[in-house]
Amino acid sequence: MAVPTTDSVTLDGRSLTPAEVSAVAREGMAVRLGEEARARNTAAAEATATLLQRGTRIYGLTTGVGVLRSRDVPPSERADHQLRLLRSHAAGAGRPLSPPLVRAAMAVRANQLGAGGAGVSDELLGALVGALNSGVVPFARELGSLGTGDLTVLAEIALALIGEGRVWRGAELLAAEEALAEAGLAAAHLGPRDGIAFMSSSAASAGHAALLAVDADRLLTTSLAVSALSFIAAGADPVVFDARVHAARPHPGQVAVAARMRELLGAEAAAAGRNASRAPVHDPYPFRALAQVEGPTLDALSDLESVLAVELNAATENALIDARSLEVLPNANFHAAPIALGLDRLRTALAQSSSLVAVRVSALLDPGVGALPTVLSARPGPESGAMMLEYTAHAAAADVLSLAAPVATHPTTVGGGIESHASFAPLAARRAQQALDSAAVAVAVELVVAVRALRMRGLAPAGTGAGDLFEAATHRLDADLRDRALGDDVEAARTLLFDERAAAARWRPQSE
């Protein structure tokens, strides 16, 4: 996954990537609105004004919304209608969204507005970009969206931009009006369609999914280097990655993972001292099925990235304003089914992957598999070694398995039966976040166990990828083999999985 190479991200409404969303959301990278993106939004705003002058009925502007869509809003009340919509839709509840998640939603929404079709006022769009660049982060809560537009989150963001509600300053909450003034920003004034047009999007779900895609990419690609360390420690047979095997069943992810494992292992597997004359005819599943399990995880991630390539740059508004034909196009582009389904698939793949990681940990602790000391103890019996790490790995894998059930199949009916379907993309994202966190624990345990096993065998893998990861891990993980609390080792390993010191272990197929 490509990372930004400049000091700012241009929001052009066409090419925003998950890596760029992450840079803005987590690292505070500045954004600028591309001129063509601004022009597309302005054209839609001007078209909206023309349509209004012609007396065209426009959902949410001249009418109510949802079950009130057939109720007209008198011209005398339209000036306040958008503000009332924002206030009434700011009904989020539950835990606060973290500032990075809110910033991700803001970046995605600003870019989507640049795709054209919404026509918010230039003042509101400018306020959104200004808030991102000034570090003003609106307060919003996680519960309220069904995945048919992130109405509550976007309403709370929009209210903060006009000086209502609260915003974060570090760990402190301030009144939005005060925070805007301190940042040198003016509170925006709402245009004729700003409320409904700003909210009509699943930008919060797309932003969260973008951050998850970045993290899943880091975890998956680094975890292959971890599994290579386990292969070397166990003296497992690398023939399972022979290109002929995977050409016989050429799923893209499987082929790519096998190729990467060949790169990671190289001569290291032979140096591990496998005795083919005494070894079983083949290794157990934790080693033999690695490409067949991790390949689908790579495919699931690639699928999610393909979905996001569209969603991050989509015009999602209902109605869509066609500035060229001066038409109002009712639609449901805000429905986040592709995001929910992509996240459901990723969670399922992570469940498969995590369970294989856990049984690989078990294999490394089993003297019958790799001729390693029982439970990797220096004195089996008097000392328990890494025995309990097996439990931790399986507990983490069980957590991922429990989160794998799809959420996109949940039925719902709201709005008097008018809105009778939902994707539940926000729920899919929250569960994917939990699954990814627990999957990282399982991989971290494997890293601790693999490094311990390599040390006990006197092996030190070299080269890029697995060798670099091993070297970085040896600086983080205590070499003391005596019985001691190992929880800090797991946490140190988990942090390393996402650390730049493990960058050489990360990889994606060249075609990407």
Distinctive features:
single chain; 512 residues; mainly alpha; Fumarase C, Chain B, domain 1; Fumarase C, Chain A, domain 2; 2 domains; 3-stranded antiparallel beta sheet; two-stranded parallel sheet; 20 helices; 55% helix
Protein model, in words:
This protein is mainly α and 512 residues long. The protein folds into two domains: 8-201, Fumarase/aspartase (N-terminal domain) (Fumarase C, Chain B, domain 1, Orthogonal Bundle); 216-313 and 335-411 and 418-505, Up-down Bundle (Fumarase C, Chain A, domain 2). The protein has 20 helices and nine strands. The protein has helices spanning 18-27, 35-53, 78-89, 99-113, 122-134, 151-161, 176-182, 194-199, 203-234, 243-247, 252-265, 268-271, 285-288, 290-311, 337-365, 367-370, 387-402, 425-457, 463-476, 487-497; strands at 8-11, 30-33, 93-96, 137-138, 141-143, 166-169, 172-175, 320-322, 327-329. The strands form four sheets. It has a three-stranded antiparallel sheet with strand order 4-6-7. The chain has a two-stranded parallel sheet with strand order 1-2. The protein has a two-stranded antiparallel sheet with strand order 3-5. A hairpin with a 4-residue loop joins strand 8 and strand 9 (327-329).
